[in-house]
Amino acid sequence: AKRVYFFGNGRADGTAQMKDLLGGKGANLAEMTNLGLPVPPGITITTEVCKEYFQLGQQFPEGLWEEILEGMKKIEEVVGKKFGDRKIPLLVAVRSGAPVSMPGMMDTILNLGLNDESVEGLAESTGNERFAWDSYRRFIQMFGNVVMGIPHEKFEEILEAKKEEVGAKADIDLTAEDFKDIVKKYKEMVKRETGQEFPQDPYKQLEMAVRAVFDSWNNPRAIRYREINKIPEDYGTAVNVVAMVFGNMGDTSGTGVAFTRNPSTGENEFYGEYLKNAQGEDVVAGIRTPQPLRKSQKTDESQVSLEEEFPEVYKELERIRDILEKHYRDMQDIEFTIENGKLYMLQTRTGKRTARAAVKIAVDLVKEGLITKEEAIMRIDPSLINQLLHPMIDEEDKKRAIAEGRLITKGLPAAPGAVSGKVVFSADEAVEMKEKGEKVILVRHETSPEDIHGMHAAEGILTARGGMTSHAAVVARGMGKTCIVGAETITVDYDRQEFRVGDIVVKKGDIITIDGSTGEIFHGEIKTIPANISGEFEELMKWADEIRDLKVRVNADTPEDALQGRKFGAEGIGLCRTEHMFFNEDRIPVVREMILAKTKEEREKALKKLLPMQRSDFKAIFEVMDGLPVNIRLLDPPLHEFLPKTEEEFEKTAKEMGLSVEEIKKRAEELHEVNPMLGLRGSRLGIAYPEIYEMQVRAIIEAACECKKEGIDVKPEIMLPLIADDRELAELKKMIDRVAAEVFVETGVEVPYQVGTMIEIPRAALIADQLARDAEYFSFGTNDLTQMTFGLSRDDAGKFIGKYVEKGILKGDPFMHIDENGVGQLIKIAIEKGNKTRPGIKTGVCGEHGGDPRSINFFQQIGIQYVSPSPFRVPIARLAAAQAKI
Ligand code: ADP
Ligand code: MG
Ligand code: MG
């Protein structure tokens, strides 16, 4: 097979499609050449050669060198100079380029081919001595560092000493004589450091450089990068050898980088930077401050834009910008160099962009007729949408903060957004400070249901423990709160009211900023950019809605969440958890009374107090969801979750109930279960204590009737959790119908309602045909279903599931992405069986998976009718559902 691909003079062997073989850089250099753009000629040695090289134990395969030499001949012909010539030497850049962009690979080497003789030739033939010696010293520096492994600082020291000696402020102030002396010192230093002379034979230089590129594929930095980013080990890198063009020839030369559209806002405006009389990395390295590309990009009058300085070149660049965008049909990130007023293109690739820019660019490209709506939708990573719904950190200010050493540590990015606030260590304190108008960040080892009010009050939540599906993470995502979990380096010290990371101490009241998109935690405040649901975003979502089949509801327990979900486009409530209404501060004492009641009478007394509270809860939600279905789940968790825990709570409850603390404790003990998650919970509560469920059904139906009287269009659905048996379901269904009928008689109004069941126990999936006799719909509680199918506790899995993923036993955390093989199979069975008994039976997913794009794709395939995520994931689900359809 062909090992070396040529490009130059308007014709290239390769194309942009050949990224795997030529690497991204090489493939695009070929493409630009074929487009007739001014690209200096060059060759690309393929990624296959890199693989061969390693198979042969780091040897060039036979015949490779000859092919390279042939390629060099072609470059020489196009440029009209000879490589290794003493008088008018051809110089080349040696550049690595893997199929995917990979920092950590070898840096580019410029000006290769220079030596003690040809540097004189270069000086003479260009009539520019300073330029020649500047190029040579740059070459020795890059080659010495990258190929010979000499640390950067060794070169910097010599350069800095020289600058000091002659009183030069910047590199630009150094003269030819200065560079000559620097070259001499560089070479001496190279000899000292490596015991070798700096190689003088250009072909030897070339061979060493090509080898260095291949070798860099397996340097620790690159390996680590591939590990983190899941890039296959066997891709290999290509090597590009490209004729040099010179941006450092004086004031009519320069080098720059640009984006064809603004990468942070997505605005359709050319955006970039350049430096006069400079080479290669000077622009990004911050040696001098680069100047703006466009006049209108200037931020102060002292700047000189490329548009003003090189108007002809600028026009040419604009023309190329247009060609590239039309051709690639996407925003490009380009690198260019100007040699004596002539423009050369050195690279193009798809430009990285913020979430906001990604959406704007995709929508604009549709309007410009370059891509279809479907393509626009497919181009947006749904998880990016998440960032758009929350304030984002200001990158400039963050850079500053990092430079000032304010980055404290990093945890897992559990819920996006960037927020600042004072550190507090308890939920109560969070509430108190919030009431005083302070912004707080709640910092805990981990959170539990008792912290909910504090989580609500806080701007953000930070925990030292827990994984991406821990309590804090799940609840925060549900609330749309910024959250970082599992910041393992943090020690939370409740006694001293501080947290520590190494010898950094953060005390209560100190201000920190947390970025839930990256997991970073900073001292002090960092500027943020507010969430921006711009016109384009809305437009994109509208297109998604037109395309998708899958409906999207929302999980909401409060009117606020319901409203948020509705604003984000939810088409109903897929799960309304009634227990969350029980955790409310005014309610919990009554709930405790109910639970600790010894007799039915005692219990009914407490339930009577709860009834109006629940009724008003439901009514408020029905009002918000006017016209849309609301699926309410009857009480689900094990009762012990509501019991008093602290001594103080026991005393309070005892007083309220007129009993002794001992008596209360005794009753609490009786409720103790060995394995509560498999104990008295879900519909078992409805069988064991029918009056609890009766009260809830009554509250729902009464609220619905009241709403109907007020002209609100209510569509209640009553859902029974944790059903395992058809007779269990039949009994509860009978109760629901009886209570509803009673209420209808009492109120004189009738409201249509549906009764359905959760499918969250494997047995329920297997007998779904029997359940469908009474159940009018199925809602797959995929959290519990996963837990029970795997026999894996969600709250404990975090401690070891990582090992399973690491070892490749599991592809991912099954609580994040649905397990298609096992859990997915159960869902399929249930849908099939359900349809046999009740054709077209309504099916939905209300677990965390309902907001996960990968899982949504699967749900679409197996015919689920709706998903129901937490409010802030509704837009993500809408987009993912459209993508699943396309
Ligand atoms: P990276 O992958 O880090 O972007 P490149 O191979 O693109 O590395 O090289 C970095 C810089 O070196 C380019 O932006 C350009 O300024 C300069 N450069 C690369 N090739 C050439 C060349 N043939 N002539 C002049 N400068 C070059
Ligand atoms: Mg580059
Ligand atoms: Mg459940």
The shape, in one word, is elongated
CA-based gyration radius? 34 Å
Report low-confidence residues grouped into runs of 5 or more.
none
What ligands are attached or bound here?
adenosine-5'-diphosphate, magnesium ion
The CATH topology of the domain at 4-243: Dna Ligase, domain 1
Q: Percent of residues in beta strands?
A: 15-25%
Number of helices: 37
On the 0 to 100 scale, the average pLDDT is: 92
CATH superfamily of the domain at 4-243: ATP-grasp fold, A domain
CATH level 1 class label of the domain at 4-243? Alpha Beta
Measured between the Cα atoms of the first and last residue, the distance is 37 Å
Question: Largest beta sheet, briefly?
Answer: 9 strands, parallel
Domain PEP-utilising enzyme mobile: 438-519
Family: Belongs to the PEP-utilizing enzyme family.
InterPro entries: ATP_grasp_subdomain_1 (IPR013815), PEP-util_enz_mobile_dom (IPR008279), PEP_util_AS (IPR018274), PEP_util_C (IPR000121), PEP_util_CS (IPR023151), Phosphohistidine_dom_sf (IPR036637), PPDK_AMP/ATP-bd (IPR002192), Pyruvate_phosphate_dikinase (IPR010121)
EC number: 2.7.9.1
Give an overview of the whole structure.
By secondary structure, this protein is α/β, with parallel strands linked by helices. Among the domains are: 4-243, 2-Layer Sandwich (Dna Ligase, domain 1); 254-353, ATP-grasp fold, B domain (D-amino Acid Aminotransferase, Chain A, domain 1, 2-Layer Sandwich), CATH 3.30.470; 390-529, Glucose Oxidase, domain 1 (3-Layer(bba) Sandwich), CATH 3.50.30. It is 46% helix and 17% strand. The chain contains 37 helices and 35 strands. The strands form seven sheets. The chain has a nine-stranded parallel β-sheet. It has an eight-stranded mixed β-sheet with strand order 15-25-24-17-18-19-20-16. Helix 4 packs antiparallel against helix 5 (129-146) and helix 21 packs parallel to helix 24 (600-624). It is elongated. The mean pLDDT is 92. Bound molecules: adenosine-5'-diphosphate and magnesium ion (MG) (2 copies). One magnesium ion binds at residues 335, 347. Residues 438-519 form the PEP-utilising enzyme mobile domain.
